[in-house]
Design goal:
Elements lengths: L1 H23 L22 H34 L2 H8 L3 H7 L3 H23 L6 H17 L3 H11 L4 H28 L12 H16 L8 H13 L6
C-alpha cells in the first residue's frame, strides 16, 4: 500500500508539472518543439547587390541634379544660379552635388555634353545612309523637331545664345564638344550632295547657312512666339526645298 501511494503521488506531481509547462509554452508553438532563445539572423544581402543598389541611387541623384540645374539655369541664367537652389530643387544636400560635379561650370558643361552630344552622333550616322539630299534634309528636320525643338534641349541652346558672350569659356566648350562636330558632319553631307549635283558648291564652305533657320526657330520661340506663332516644321522643310529641291537655283 505504501508503495502504491508513492507511485500515485509521483504520477500526480508529473501531471501537474506537465500542465504548468503547457501554460508556459508560447502560443502557436507545438508542445515539445525545440527553438533557440538567440535572435534570428537575417540573410545577408550579397555585396554585389548592395553595390548595384548604391550605384542606382547615385545615378538617380545625378539625374535629378542635372534636371534641377537646367531649370535653374533656364530661369536665372548661369551667373545668378546658386548651387543651393539647385540642391533644394533636386531634393539633395548641397554637398551631394560636389560628389558628382567639381563646380557650377562643370555642372553646366555636363548638361551640354549629356543632352546635345547624342544628337551629334545621330547626325553623323545620317552620312552612311544612301538617300537623296532632299530626303536627308527632311530627316534632319524631323530629328531637330523631335529631339531638340520639342524637348528641353532647345533651352540648352538658348542658354548658350544668351550666356555665351558673357562666359566665353562656356561658348568655347559648346563649340568644341558639339558645334564643331555638327559642322564637320554637315560639310561631309554637303560635299556628297555637290558631287551628285544636288547642292550648290558654296554650301560646303558655309554649312551655317543650312543650320541658320533652326537657330531662328529657337530664338523666335523664346521671344516672339506669343505674338506670332511660327510653324517651325514647315519653315524648315521649305528651307530644305529651297536649298536642295528640283526648283533650286544652280
Amino acid at each position: 500500500m505504501l508503495m502504491l501511494g508513492m507511485k500515485r503521488a509521483k504520477s500526480g506531481a508529473g501531471q501537474q508539472a506537465s500542465r504548468a509547462a503547457a501554460r508556459r509554452q508560447p502560443a502557436g508553438i507545438p508542445r515539445g518543439a525545440q527553438f533557440s532563445s538567440r535572435p534570428t539572423k537575417r540573410t545577408p544581402q550579397p555585396a554585389q547587390q548592395r553595390t548595384s543598389s548604391r550605384r542606382e541611387r547615385s545615378a538617380e541623384r545625378r539625374e535629378a541634379i542635372l534636371a534641377a540645374a537646367l531649370d535653374e539655369f533656364s530661369q536665372a541664367g548661369f551667373a545668378a544660379t546658386r548651387l543651393d537652389d539647385v540642391a533644394r530643387r533636386a531634393g539633395v544636400a548641397k554637398g551631394t552635388i560636389y560628389l558628382h560635379f567639381r563646380d557650377k561650370e562643370a555642372l553646366f558643361q555636363e548638361i551640354l555634353r549629356s543632352m546635345l552630344a547624342p544628337i551629334v552622333g545621330r547626325i553623323e550616322a545620317l552620312g552612311s545612309v544612301e538617300h537623296s539630299t532632299v530626303t536627308l534634309g527632311e530627316r534632319i528636320v524631323e530629328l531637330f523637331m523631335r529631339e531638340i525643338y520639342e524637348t528641353r534641349r532647345k533651352d540648352v541652346i538658348r542658354l548658350i545664345l544668351t550666356e555665351g558672350r558673357r562666359f566665353p569659356h562656356l561658348a568655347e566648350f559648346y563649340y568644341r564638344e558639339v558645334l564643331s562636330h555638327v559642322l564637320t558632319a554637315m560639310r561631309a553631307l554637303l560635299a556628297r550632295a555637290v558631287a551628285r549635283g544636288e547642292a550648290a558648291p558654296g554650301l560646303v564652305d558655309f554649312p551655317q547657312l543650312v543650320a541658320a533657320p533652326a537657330l531662328i526657330a529657337v530664338v523666335w520661340g523664346g521671344l516672339f512666339e506669343r505674338f506670332e506663332p511660327l510653324d517651325v516644321r514647315t519653315m524648315l522643310r521649305t528651307h530644305v526645298d529651297l536649298l536642295f529641291g528640283p526648283g533650286r537655283t544652280k
